[in-house]
Design brief:
single chain, alpha+beta, 5 strands
Length: 172
């Protein structure tokens, strides 16, 4: 079991401060690093991922796949294309709560930002307490992932091309 927590801010600065604070919380707790991503939307609507990096290797934590999946939550709910389901429907089919997916897709405003974290070891209460203690008054979205949903999300993550994960500016 794990959790996805999204903290949506009107200010990109507040989101980056929150991301740094969550990284510090991990260090203070002495747990294995969780995948943290700051997702920004520019004035033109472009979504950018700023993911947590393993300082020893320079690679994204979690291989960048959780960060990419969290970033995809903020894309508009896409209609199905001729060959399959739209992105939002695939996330719902994987077991993510439909309301969570819907609210996430609408949450990120232009010039806004959000922090997303996949929480396994750190604990939901610690993360939420840290976020609430920071300035910026974020809108919190939370989804609990049972083992079946997490496995289905891993299967979806495996479909993300490595070339997407290796983009230097994290655009999706």
């Amino acid at each position: 079991m794990s959790d996805l927590i999204l903290a949506v801010y009107g200010s990109q600065t507040a989101a980056f401060v929150a991301g740094e604070s969550l990284a510090a919380l991990q260090q203070e707790a002495g747990v294995e690093p969780e995948d943290i991503v700051v997702v920004t939307r520019s004035a033109s609507g472009r979504v950018t991922l700023n993911q947590s990096i393993d300082l020893a290797t320079g690679q994204p934590l979690g291989g960048g796949r959780w960060a990419a999946m969290i970033g995809m939550l903020f894309l508009d709910e896409r209609k199905p294309t001729g060959r399959g389901q739209g992105l939002a429907e695939q996330l719902r089919s994987a077991g993510l709560d439909a309301d969570f997916v819907h609210h996430a897709s609408l949450a990120l405003t232009r010039d806004g930002a959000a922090v997303g974290i996949h929480v396994r070891l750190l604990g939901v209460d610690r993360v939420l307490n840290r976020l609430h203690a920071l300035k910026g008054n974020p809108r919190i979205l939370h989804a609990r992932l049972d083992a079946e949903t997490e496995e289905a999300l891993h299967d979806l993550q495996a479909q993300i091309p490595q070339s997407v994960l290796n983009q230097p500016d994290g655009l999706i």
